[in-house]
Design brief:
131 residues; alpha+beta; six-stranded mixed beta sheet; 6 strands
Amino acid sequence: MALNPNFNQIGEMFTKQYYAMFDNAATRGELAKLYNTEQSFLSFEGQQMQGTAKIMEKINSLTFQSIAHIVTSIDCHPMFDGGILVNVMGQLRLTMTSQSFMQNFVLKPMGDSFFIQHDVFRLVLHNVAAH
């Protein structure tokens, strides 16, 4: 498989769609369609899980009342297997606070579409030592 020449457009469109679905409580459950039953992995603040069911269990366990992802940058890279690496930085706007975040996605081709094979999410905490 060759490099996807539309990697930037696909990565940016994916990012907008993902956060629009995530930020709307009515459509958040639809995120399950973007993951693969067995081949998707999520690392959320260092906690790792595999498969759509476990990933959605984690997403649905988050306790915020309302949320908005304000994206400040999207960097996309093509992968040699036709996939796309997407790096996102931005601000999470919660009911009473905001917090910087970064999220990386590896989008893998499947038929005429893509699924999220890897999803790594971290809050950006500059004032806390890693260990």
